[in-house]
Amino acid sequence: MTPPNAQATLAQALASAVEALREVSSTPRLDAEILLAHTLGWSRARVLARLQETIPDDALQTFRALVERRAAREPVAYLTGRKEFYGLEFVVDRRVLVPRPETEALVDAALEWARQHYSPHDTLLIADIGTGSGCIAIVLARHLPNAVVYATDLSPDALAVARQNAELHGVAERITLLCGDLLAPLPQAVDLAVSNPPYTILNEIDAGVRLHEPHLALDGGSDGLAVYRRLLATAPQALRPGGALMLEIGATQAEAVTALARQAFPAAAVHMLRDLAGWDRVVVVNVER
Ligand code: GLN
């Protein structure tokens, strides 16, 4: 134990943080390193190279306060205000869901579809439904320079974060942010609609997620499927012939969402893709020409 007034080294500060986080996090050491690096304004590599140096008192206070918040299950991304997604860094706070690595599977599917169906010279109309931080819409806009992107969200607070991220990544002029419910605010039908809608059953998810992240982005109703039903009810009018709809799903929802998609689009080809961890993750609807 470090006596209260003795100078702590970075190594000691990290060790007590790891102890404090062991019960709430599956990655206590990583969390502690990220929070210490954030506190000092350093990279993690620099922290790890200087473990035997002493930590200034004010930094130690700041670090301990962050560790305390993490111990109350607040996501690391809200504590640092940043989250990496598909190679870009996004501003995040409690107004938006933290981007998840599994959602990169949805982006992969969308980019692959765009490569197969559109030449870089065609204008491609894309809609991201329930955009949150804007991470999906922004990555698509960055990778598809000729895409015109609509991004909708019911939450004006989320759209403010999405706007900040679109500006940060230089695509604000190609993304139109629209406030409203699901597909309703779209001014015209699109070629490609993507969505990571709320699909969880709130009382079944991780307590930290439920305590700190926006329920509007998570709550899929009593069976987790409520938003898919509403979205699929109007999706046929929102897509151009030959277009595609891609929906992120929870790992156990493949059968149910595939069935709902087939009801909504009886003539379309519907298939399912997995994420890098091998879980069912994206339902793809290829609309007939
Ligand atoms: N993947 C998120 C989670 O498990 C849920 C995201 C969503 O509902 N779209 O917490």
From TrEMBL:
GO molecular function: nucleic acid binding; peptide chain release factor N(5)-glutamine methyltransferase activity
Domain Release factor glutamine methyltransferase N-terminal: 12-81
Methyltransferase small domain span: 125-201
The entry's keywords: Methyltransferase, S-adenosyl-L-methionine, Transferase
Protein origin, superkingdom: Bacteria
Residues annotated to bind substrate: 196-199
Known role: Methylates the class 1 translation termination release factors RF1/PrfA and RF2/PrfB on the glutamine residue of the universally conserved GGQ motif.
Similarity section: Belongs to the protein N5-glutamine methyltransferase family. PrmC subfamily.
Protein name per its UniProtKB record: Release factor glutamine methyltransferase
